[in-house]
Specification:
about 120 residues; alpha/beta; Rossmann fold; 7 strands; about 35% helix; globular
């Protein structure tokens, strides 16, 4: 079966453990080769600097801290990413307003659509 994320490496940056587990399950259903997870900005940046990712999902707010530095690190390495947030889309920073945004809570179909737009077939 040809799955959207077959052989893809995805980074998920999310501070809510239950949401993180749900996203990991969704990505596994989509055939993802590997999922790396970070719950803090510093942890996410270390992963971005040390590994290759095909795409990433980035929560805008991690434990009360905006994830701008993670977005910068992803952009610097050419890693496409989608924001996942329960906040207002207005919180998107200049220079990243063109990034897709998944509004929490989101469905499996919404996740699939967002990632399909990031990755080449």
């Amino acid at each position: 079966m040809n799955k959207l994320l077959s052989e893809r490496r995805i980074l998920v940056v999310e501070d809510e453990i239950l949401i993180l587990m749900m996203i990991e399950d969704m990505l596994a259903d989509l055939g993802c080769k590997s999922v790396s997870a970070a719950t803090k900005n510093e942890q996410a940046i270390a992963l971005v600097e040390g590994q290759f990712f095909d795409a990433a999902m980035l929560d805008m707010n991690l434990n009360g801290k905006i994830s701008y530095d993670v977005a910068d690190a992803l952009a610097a390495r050419g890693v496409p990413f989608v924001y996942a947030t329960g906040n207002s889309v207005r919180d998107t920073r200049d220079g990243f307003r063109d990034r897709p945004v998944l509004k929490k809570p989101f469905s499996h179909e919404e996740l699939t659509k967002a990632l399909s737009g990031l990755l080449p077939p």
